[in-house]
Amino acid sequence: MTDTPTRALRLGTRRSKLAMAQSGQVAEAVRELTGRPVELVEITTYGDTSREHLAQIGGTGVFVSALRDALLAGDIDFAVHSLKDLPTAQPEDLTVAAIPVREDPRDALIARDGLTFAELPDGARIGTGSPRRMAQLNAWARTLGRRVEAVPIRGNIDTRIGFVEKGELDAVVLAAAGLTRIGRIDEATQLLSPDVVLPAPGQGALAIECAAVNVDLVAQLAGLDDPYTRAAVTAERSLLAALEAGCSAPVGALADLSPSSRLRSSRGGPKADEQAVTEMHLRGVVGTTDGSALVQLSTTGHVPASLDDDATWLNMGRELAAEMLAKGAAGLMGERAL
Predict the structure, then answer these.
(1) Active-site position among 154, 225, 310, 318
(2) Which of 24, 139, 220, 230 is least buried, going by the fewest C-beta atoms within 10 A?
């Protein structure tokens, strides 16, 4: 098929409500940016069809492999991924052309009766398929002199919230960004502070990926890139890669660019160019899923004149990972990337 300026760009997306919502938002932005129509191409991934828990099937890449295959086959022009689902090793023949402004990276609690985490009863059943969340929620409960039962769950956002609505679970923990993108953030009974629960590396951010040979499209899509978000997630994912951990390992990380906080929604927060950014604060955590042992460390680095200096963010992640490994982090991870 001849690629002409009037041909519709084909955007590959997973079929879930969340994936369709976030891909639809990106599609509209690409239409405005390029002046070209964009059509969504629904693709089913292994992670969508498997009923196994992510920790059992490895987690890494299970939601992206089919999309990447479609890109390389030329069936789609670009794909939208949740960045936290992307393996840290980037294939040479694919390019992440843009990482748009990040949505709120925090986790959100949806509990029965409007309860916060501290108000949940001893032994409360909390649904999550994430070993990272299990580790930190169990550790948090211990500091409150309580215990919680982390119940592994799968399914889309509606299914997970349904466990609480039906009384099968006391609460579930989900990404605030996903709830925002499908218009259900108001149902969160508490947004969990990164001081107690660090999100997954890259959580809240999207990756727009296309074939590296499609240089014109790569250049166009770069107009959607937010350098502040890219810098932060590069540091977080560098930490994850240096720990040699997959995306289902109990690893949390968050990079904050100061003085402007990135914790607010991109819809209501300050624009990146309105405040001078002078420092990056990177935090990381690794823990056993029962919360009995955590390694939590942080580091602060100066922001160079050019945010495009990826080496700065990569080194910050690697250095913090080295400190965490020296403190015994490797022994706390249930899954090591092969």
Answers:
(1) 154
(2) 24
Judged against a pLDDT cut of 50, whether residue 243 lies above it is answered with: yes
Beta-strand relationship, 279-287 and 294-302? antiparallel
184 in active site: no
Cα 67 from Cα 73, distance rounded (Å): 10
Q: Report how far residue 72's alpha carbon sits from residue 212's, in angstroms, rounded to the nearest whole number.
A: 9
Catalytic residue among 84, 181, 184, 237: 84
Which residue matches tokens 């040699």? 244
Instruction: Give catalytic status of residue 271 as yes or no.
Output: no
Residue indicated by tokens 């913090």: 320
| Among 132, 184, 237, 283, the one annotated catalytic | 132
Active-site annotation holds for 154:
yes
The verdict on whether 247 is a catalytic residue reads: yes
Q: Are 132 and 243 in contact, with CB atoms under 8 Å apart? A: no
Q: Using CA atoms, how far apart are residues 122 and 309, in angstroms rounded to an integer?
A: 48
